[in-house]
Amino acid sequence: MREKAIDVAIIGSGPAGMAAAISAKQAGAEDVLLIDREIEEGGILNQCIHNGFGTQIFRKDLTGPEYVHFFAEKVMASNVKVWNDTMVLELTPEREIYAISPERGMVKIKARSVVLAMGCRERPRGAINIPGDRPSGVYTAGTVQRLINIEGYMPGERFVILGSGDIGMIMARRVTLEGGRVERVVEILPYLSGLRRNYSQCIVDYNIPLQLSHTVVRINGRKHLESVTIAKVDEKRKPIAGTEETIPADTLILSVGLIPENELSKQAGVLIDPLTGGPYVDESMQTNIPGIFAAGNVVHVYDLVDWVSKAGELAGRSAGKYAVKHKEESRRKIRLLPGKNVHHIVPQFFDPLSLEEGEQKIQFRVTKPFETTVKVSMIGNNNKKVKERILRYARPSEMIEINIPQSIIGSLSRVKTLSIDVEEVKNA
Amino acid sequence: MSLAYYKEENKDMQKNEYDVIIIGAGVEGCMIARELSRYKLRILLIEKNDDVATGTTKANTGIVHAGYNAAVGSNKASMNVRGNALFDTIASELNVPFERIGDYVVALTDEDIPKIEALLDKGKKNGVPGIEILSKEEMLRREPNLNPNLKLALYAPTGGMVDPIGLSIAAAENAIDNGVEIKLLTEVKNLLKKGKRIVGVETNRGNFYGKWIINSAGLYSDVIMKWAGIESDFKITPRKGEYFIFDPSYKPIHSILFPTPTPTTKGILVTITTYGNIGIGPNDEETEDKEDKSTTYPGLKEVMDGGKRLVPSLNMKYIIKEFAGLRARGNAGLMHDRYSSMIPRDFIMEVPDDVVEGFVNLAGIESPGLAASPGIAEWVVNALKEHGLKMEKKKDFNPIRTPIPSFASLSREEQARLIEKDPRFGRIVCRCENVTEGEIVRAIHAPLPALSYDALKRRLHIGMGRCQGGFDTPRTIEILSRELGIPPVKVTKNGDDSFFLKRETKSVEAKK
Fold first, then answer.
1. I want to staple A106 with a disulfide (CB 3.0 to 4.6 A). Which of B159, B172, B197, B416 is the partner?
2. CA distance linking residue A179 with residue A175, whole number of Å
3. Are B504 and A154 within 8 A, CB to CB?
């Protein structure tokens, strides 16, 4: 398994992650790695081809992909490493990340600080317990958005949408533009759950019928969705018998809420606030685990992407500073000492963490000539031998260079000095 | 192999002759096929759906019952106890997770106590090993979240959990490895007869001829019996059972917990599935429709209330899924005809050669059919032997089935090696269950191919986590389309017209 040490690892390259990467760099972190499971940066914004993004920060009205493009260019210009098509399987409290990709295989990443920027996911049908059949044609709004905007396919022609959240309303307009017909948008609450502007731009402008205080009470269709039964609900949101109406439809879109995606956070021991569904954070966006920060919809669900970027910026800056400080503190130099028959060594000091970048070379001269086989040993102050090499001869007139391989990094954890001895091999 | 399902069926008559034809690839059909594949026989397993285990097997709770419930002397009792005993070997050969976590029947009222004592007595007579009564204190020590008002409990250590779908798939795969042919999407329309003898089956894919026809058609076993010419009022009345499944992170209990049974059902139980989710259900509603697997508000409420009776603290917030399944409830022993002398609602297991030859009849196989399935398969082999089918053991029978490596359950080192060998294991398609593209591709091209989204779900548990397929669905449609060589609009959830996509978007159309 490959290992890699870095300053700041950012999990998720949506708006929070991209902003965090840029500001971590600005805060002085050298090695910043942005990890995302998709093949390009941007997260869910890539499928949000509608406008309305960036009005707060840029005073511009951008589409999702345009917003991504703006940040992605900055990410590139800041020399942030980006690993796409890469999935994080595990995060430990020690900030070790196990990530996989077809290209690099499994890599164990040791990060000085981590920013959690995994965003949120949609509540599925099961979470709201709609009775009835289990046919195809029932999707969450985000799934339909991906099918239409990324994959280029319409899942059906006649739609019912449950939930008046922003994605639900935006999808009502989107499927209408694609030639689909929205039979009804139903909302269980007595008021709209999304933004006013989406109501006027997506529902009113397209003459889409919306019913408040209504919900879906039954899904009908053995193999494919055939119809949806809706009913009026009382103040306790319970369906009122006798108010049922069955609407023929081939697609039901669920827009019934978003949940911060914190499975990795929980693995690492990050404590979650039951009220937000996201981690408890301090003013720097640090979680209860030192060095693990969080930003964006993973902390709580925002309505505007601008705020997500701002949160990412703060978390990235904090994570960058943390990494720099941690790096200075942890920079431990091992003294290289000339041992038996060795005159001097260069370099005299050696940072064991440099091995994470690759093998290191050291040079030395012996005190006297050896014309027979000699053994070069590197021995730690704990009396453990970390490397041995055989040479056919050794002469003071010829400088000797040997390498310190990456593989010994583990055995150097508590070593303060390393001495190099050169001895004749008897009976060779 | 998988592509063949989308092409014209081979009409070659000679190829259509078999020694044994099994109708229905539920857990019974698959286990029978696997058991018969030990012998030098041409065997065909026919299934009307696009995968095995899609009928009554699909919505089974997964409990390998110990055997104290069935009436003394019944087929249910003997097959259950025998089948249960065979499970360790079968599960290990087929590489299917199976654990004897033990099952408990809890008495919640004083009236329940004599019923528990009666179960103990029945269990002893049926030969259930290690069965005993536990005190309230001991029961609460083992399961502290149980209703504290409980009186006592029956404990059966041999009760276990298995994934009924996984078991059926594994048995079918092993049977195929040992030479059994399986035809999916093939529906039997009638039986072919020559005088008193059944000589084959008529299907939507042509006729198939066999020396012996085995009826393991589950919910439709009564229809097959009629076609066979058995005069009887026997009838399968589907009994619907609804279930809830909870998020695997929520674990208030660790074993199989039944309430005290009623005369017709074992009641709404609370259990932990093989995959670590808590499940509650089933209720018991009669329905006339053999395809009605819908859930209802009253049904789900009944399940919820039933679950809370046993475990009052059950938190419904953690529910991730609800579904319903149908039991194949028969009425054997309840009418005045050839089955009138049977124990009420017992399994019908017979070679009815007084009326029809070449026919093995298995009907009314409801609970404990899963636990009984290895016993029933063994019974079928013996019945065929006794009735003169020449059965010679194969020397090269391979009892071991090697599953597709489950990426999520491997160690980090093993995962790293797997990706090195096949980089497609380095791409996660289902992020909740960590299912990789490598597993999906292998399942699509397996000897028993996964042809639809639900078929992948049954094999790999894709889409069964927190997001319930929200993330993986578009990606999985793409892989199914690519690997099956069909356009994305032809990819289905579970066969027939359960398509995901209707048409390309206007912008895509415009580009063409």
1. B416
2. 6
3. yes
User: Which residues of B are catalytic, by number?
Assistant: 65
**Angle (nearest 5°) at CA A362 between A361 and A367:** 150
A263 contacts B427? CB cut-off 8 A: no
Q: What does each C-alpha distance from A215 to A198, A285, B177, B253, B297 come to in angstroms?
A: 20, 38, 50, 33, 13
| Inter-chain touch B323–A87, beta carbons under 8 Å | no
pLDDT at B466: 74
Q: Nearest chain A Cα to B432, which residue?
A: A263
Q: Chain A residues with CB inside 8 Å of B424's CB?
A: 102
When pLDDT is averaged across residues B398-411 and rounded to a whole number, the result is 93
> Each residue of B269-290: pLDDT tens digit?
999 988 889 999 999 998 888 8
Best residue of A4, A46, A86, A100 to probe chain B, by most B CBs closer than 10 Å: A100
Structure tokens belonging to residue A133: 């059949």
| Range scoring the smallest mean pLDDT among A332-336, B374-378, B474-478 | A332-336
Cross-chain Cβ contact A148/B434 below 8 Å: no
A250 shares contact with chain B (CB less than 8 Å): yes
User: Which tokens is B122 given?
Assistant: 């029945």
Q: From the CA of A370, how many Å to the nearest CA of chain B?
A: 45
Cα gap B492→B15, rounded to integer Å: 30
Which listed CATH number (3.20.20.70, 3.40.190.10, 3.50.50.60, 3.65.10.10) goes with B16-96+161-236+330-401? 3.50.50.60
Set of chain A residues whose Cβ sits within 8 Å of the Cβ of B321: 126
Query: pLDDT category, B10, cuts 50, 70, 90?
Result: very low
A155 close contact with B: CB closer than 8 A: yes
What's the gap in Å between the CA of B472 and the closest CA on chain A?
9
Decide which of A304, A330, A356 is a domain's last residue.
A330
Q: Does the predicted TM-score (pTM) go above 0.90? A: no
- Measured in angstroms, the CA of B429 and the nearest CA of chain A are apart by 10
Q: Which residue type does A402 have?
A: I
pLDDT in tens, B201-255: 999 999 999 999 999 999 999 999 999 999 899 999 999 999 999 988 899 999 9
Inter-chain CB proximity A87 and B469 less than 8 Å: no
pLDDT tens profile A114-133:
999 999 999 877 667 788 99
Percent of chain B clearing pLDDT 70 (strictly above): 96
Assess whether A105 and A134 both reside in one domain.
Answer: no
Query: Which amino acid, A54?
Result: G
